[in-house]
Write a structure and sequence with these properties.
The protein has 395 residues and is α+β, with helices and mostly antiparallel strands. It has helices at 4-12, 21-37, 47-56, 66-87, 140-143, 145-158, 183-208, 234-238, 255-261, 268-306, 333-342, 346-349, 353-362, 368-377, and strands at 96-105, 108-121, 124-131, 161-169, 174-178, 310-312, 316-327, 379-390. The chain has 14 helices and 8 strands. It starts with a helix and ends in a 5-residue tail after the last strand. Bound molecules: iron/sulfur cluster (SF4). Iron/sulfur cluster binds at residues 3, 5-6, 9, 218, 237-238, 241, 243-244, 247, 249-250.
Length: 395
């Protein structure tokens, strides 16, 4: 349901995916909470037992280095300590922990696991799903397709009514609740399951014969409330997908992958097309560079005005570094060289002039009169670099 193309790559083509640290982290914390709630009789495990369980069952895949892993482990321990302190008093043995279901939706098999189900009355239950990633909006539980699916599965398979649905944000220990999802919401999700499964069934052959670029339902998300389209962009949906370089939906960004697969590459017409695409990419790059320069100037102006060196977006952070340097016009260059030569520093600047003079000016042992002379011949300029990098996403 997440993405029919992903399903195709994962289960039909069996393309391996890279391990991701945020999945390892999320699963390690989920497993520790499963351990906490899995007792048959009271009392629950002690905090040291829960923390030991985390240590013994810690998943190590996907971290970029030992430091990142150690930081996450520490964060995991903090989450469990805070959770324990907050919830020991209201501890009850749940009705189910990690409830595995296998639901038939109009002939489509849907499987999943519900983190926790509590009985809140003779025939009523509360469903809870733990999250370890970024904080979410107040209406996240109301809009969650995942919770709609859990409600469908529990009501149908357990024969109990859902009274409350909760997404529990573990890093902030914040539960976000929702009333049971409406019959219309449930029905919309049922229809979507059938539509996506039908799309896969009807179009797999066409996709393999390259008659279509991707499954028509590929970017369909968050539609269970009847909204016409997803609130997420295609870029957001696909951002962390390992299959992106192989995915026909992104062939325009990964021409090499598409070209390598195509036997028609030997064809001159195909080659001409590639040349044109390469030319177009160059033009687009120039345009994007201009846009990026304008945005950079805008960000730098705001950072300077506020006295900041760093700013955060949702997905990126920008760090400003400022370097001072001296610039010399063509008319001053002979005088600069003459001044350096006559002061006996010529050998220090042999080679490309500007960088060497910069180096010389940074040298604290440079005689004051030479420094003054050089600085009078040039004018001070500033170059600003703006480093941009992705902020890591978590589960
Ligand atoms: S890149 Fe996007 S469309 Fe393609 S498989 Fe991944 S999530 Fe699906």
């Amino acid at each position: 349901l997440e993405c029919p193309m992903k399903w195709h790559f994962r289960y039909i083509q069996k393309v391996p995916e890279k391990p991701k640290h945020f999945f390892s982290f999320g699963k390690s914390i989920h497993d520790a909470l499963e351990y906490f709630y899995s007792v048959k009789t009271l009392p629950p495990p002690s905090l040291p037992e829960v923390l030991r369980y985390l240590d013994d069952n810690w998943l190590t895949e996907g971290y970029k280095d030992a430091k990142q892993e150690a930081d996450y482990k520490e964060q995991g321990r903090t989450i469990l300590k805070e959770y324990y302190a907050k919830h020991l008093a209201d501890y009850r043995i749940p009705y189910f922990v990690e409830y595995g279901f296998n639901l038939d939706v109009e002939g489509v098999k849907v499987t999943g696991f519900v983190d926790r189900i509590d009985k809140v009355g003779d025939d009523r239950i509360a469903i809870l799903d733990y999250k370890t990633g970024k904080a979410f909006a107040k209406d996240a539980a109301v809009l969650s397709d995942q919770l709609t699916m859990y409600q469908m599965a529990c009501e149908e398979l357990l024969g109990l009514k859902v009274e409350r649905l909760t997404l529990y944000h573990l890093p902030s220990q914040t539960p976000v609740n929702s009333e049971p999802h409406s019959a219309a919401q449930v029905q919309a999700l049922r229809e979507r399951v059938v539509r996506v499964a039908g799309d896969i069934k009807a179009n797999t052959g066409k996709l393999e014969r390259a008659e279509i670029k991707h499954f028509p339902t590929v970017f369909e998300r968050n539609t269970s409330l009847g909204k016409p389209s997803s609130s997420m962009t295609a870029e957001q949906i696909c951002h962390w997908c390992d299959f992106k370089p192989l995915c026909p939906a992104w062939a325009h960004q990964y021409p090499k992958a598409e070209a390598a697969e195509s036997p028609a590459l030997k064809d001159d017409a195909k080659l001409a097309k590639l040349v044109d695409r390469y030319g177009k990419a160059h033009d687009e790059m120039k345009e994007l560079e201009e846009k990026a320069d304008a945005l950079k100037a805008e960000i730098v102006a705001v950072l300077k005005e506020r006295g900041y060196v760093k700013a955060f977006g949702q997905k990126y952070e920008a760090v400003m570094r400022s370097d001072e340097r001296w610039e010399f016009g063509p008319e001053s260059k002979p005088k600069v060289l003459d001044a350096i030569k006559s002061a006996g520093f010529w050998d220090r600047i042999v080679g490309p002039m500007a960088p060497k003079v910069q180096e010389l000016l940074k040298d604290a042992s440079l005689p004051m009169d030479l420094r003054d002379r050089l600085q009078r011949l040039g004018k001070k300029a500033e170059s600003v670099t703006l480093r941009i990098k992705k902020v890591e996403e978590e589960r």
